Amino acid sequence: MIQVENIFKRWGSFTALNGVSVSFREGEVVCIIGPSGSGKSTLLRSINHLERHDAGRIVVDGIELDDNIKNIDAVRAEVGMVFQSFNLFSHMTVIDNITLAPRRVRKWSADKAEKVALELLERVGLSAHARKYPNQLSGGQQQRVAIARALAMQPKVMLFDEPTSALDPEMVNEVLLVMRDLASSGMTMLIVTHEMGFAREVADRVIFFDQGNIVEESLEPQQFFSSPSHPRAQAFLKQI
Ligand code: ADP
Ligand code: MG
């Protein structure tokens, strides 16, 4: 589904991604962990072309992310992204937040977009809140709206960048529940998270990032969390 081949991203003399190569299969749930500043967000943002990699290749569902705007739009239509800070449009109701992109990008009618949005709100447990504004909702509710908004575009892949890091502890679980449901529905998911219990439970694969590269990768999350091989991963897990 996604191929990342030897990508580099630099800001001045600082190297945020240092030759990262990795691929993700359809239906796979991959948790990406690692210290702050190690390049996790930059990798996700590059896959959605929020950052332009300096070198290397990224191919999503057969479409290469180059400077062709058509390709960028095509990839973005297939890749949903959820951020730590929700990023809802504060002047729009919940339902308008969700229907905006499908109407503009997919050219859906208002009726169709609204029907899909209401189904998604039901799925994330927010049917009663369709006509509210984001600032009338809790952080956990806003993040669930953000997930519904991303799903409304019917993406093939969902990227999550620390989706629960900005939430009060009592709201973390309601968001993780929605993500668990999505994982069991077969969605391809790349999740940057510090929720180790969640990662251990849902991940098909764990990737450990350090200083701009993947230093350990494991198809056995249980084993990785109990006995990581790389010294930096050992140190990280001890301190968290
Ligand atoms: P992580 O998500 O693992 O915490 P990031 O991918 O956000 O790390 O960032 C990796 C490094 O790149 C950090 O040191 C950060 O300061 C730097 N960085 C990120 N974005 C920019 C930018 N727009 N300009 C300069 N440096 C940046
Ligand atoms: Mg980050």
UniProtKB/TrEMBL annotation:
GO molecular function ontology, one term from the record:
ATP binding
Q: Which intervals hold domain ABC transporter?
A: 2-236
Any coiled-coil regions, as ranges: none
**CDD domains referenced in this protein's UniProt entry, alphabetically:** ABC_HisP_GlnQ (cd03262)
Family as reported in the entry's similarity comment: Belongs to the ABC transporter superfamily.
Keywords linked to the UniProt accession: ATP-binding, Cell membrane, Membrane, Nucleotide-binding, Transport
Q: What is this protein called?
A: Amino acid ABC transporter ATP-binding protein
Name the source's superkingdom. Answer: Bacteria
Pfam families (alphabetical): ABC_tran (PF00005)
Q: Which organism is it from?
A: Uliginosibacterium paludis
- What InterPro entries does UniProt report for this protein, alphabetically? AAA+_ATPase, ABC_ATPase_HisP-typ, ABC_transporter-like_ATP-bd, ABC_transporter-like_CS, MetN_ABC_transporter-like, P-loop_NTPase
